[in-house]
Amino acid sequence: MEAGAAAPEPPSVRQQAVLDAVLALMVEGGDQLTMDAVARRASCSKETLYKWYGDRDGLLTATVRWQASRVHAGREAVQTLDGTTLREHLQDFAVSWLTVITSRTSVALNRIAVAHAGSRKSNLGGIVLANGRFAIGERVKPVLEAGRAAGLLAFADSESAFRTFFGLVGRDIQIRLLLGEALDLDADEIRRDADRAVDQFLALYGQANT
Amino acid sequence: MEAGAAAPEPPSVRQQAVLDAVLALMVEGGDQLTMDAVARRASCSKETLYKWYGDRDGLLTATVRWQASRVHAGREAVQTLDGTTLREHLQDFAVSWLTVITSRTSVALNRIAVAHAGSRKSNLGGIVLANGRFAIGERVKPVLEAGRAAGLLAFADSESAFRTFFGLVGRDIQIRLLLGEALDLDADEIRRDADRAVDQFLALYGQANT
DNA sequence: TATCGAGCGTACCGTACGGTACGGTACTGG
DNA sequence: CCAGTACCGTACCGTACGGTACGCTCGATA
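The joint structure predicted for all components is written out below.
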């Protein structure tokens, strides 16, 4: 998947404030995301907005990238891997993924990106995919492969195994949220959900010694 | 989930043609879905559109319901259920669900509904959920329960079991499509995917005699 | 044949919003 | 103290689109 032209330069503090204003407006309801509203909320002039971001799409793109840059956790290398640490890693991934996709910000952002994917031009959808679904895939797959190398997991294709993991974790959550269902999970429910998903994944792909 | 006021009366043939025009325009790109474009495409006057559907939202709502009315397959009763027929039933569900969510029409419609869910008012999202995710849930759960009654499956909560099935079938397909990835599956891939999902589901919930 | 309603096509209105222009202000460097 | 820069606030422009009004045709009914 093409992420669509690398980010040019990191936003200044003032620019970050503007992008946060955009995020806030997104969360408050997708339809009030006008350039006027952004300028008012961020206490800046529209002219500045256009100077910094070119046009509305540029502003949206910068916002998506800004949010993505905050979500990325560092990818720590996996060295020792026994049944317990593998399980912990997977649980961490599941919890953080569920936390992300159930957050108001993510829901709002994904709504914008999905809507944008309908009308071509400037693919926010691609950026969101690259920084969401694909980014976590690239982080999980090494763990799965390390698990296989340690004899803890068995699968032929790590991509396919990851997709199953993804499905077991997310189930119907994301589409229900995107379509407007209330359904807010607290940290406990997320943890239980993650536990269940990891249990099921290990039941499918785990070797005896887990 | 509230479906949002039952459908008033079935559309006339002429009205169906109008709604099909709306669907066609949705598929061609979400942004050209203007009342003018619909009137032109359907060879009718805007005044008629407003007379029949009240306003733009009414037209969209009618379109979503119209599409939903076409997707609903009859729910046949489940009587005899052995391991083979259970598997067949689940495979049928998986195939038809994958076929639906990968169809251009469904993607376009879901995009509209998701976008609409951002700005409150007239929840298309609720209607889509009710006729998609929840409708299939209500059709699958009786089968799961029959499978449990026949000693073929083991689970405590059929809703939860269904959600796992849903996740195993859909995985990341829907979100990737909604976010604009190309990814078109042909009938063969769908069938293989459905097979895999059913295998995995039975591995998790099946009793020995499957 | 006269009347009537349904509906097509087109013209029109109001407004919201993307984008631009411009005056005013504060800070920076010489 | 002056020039330059960056930016705020506001006014402005053009257009696209939701919604309305109106004249016309056509088929049905008496």
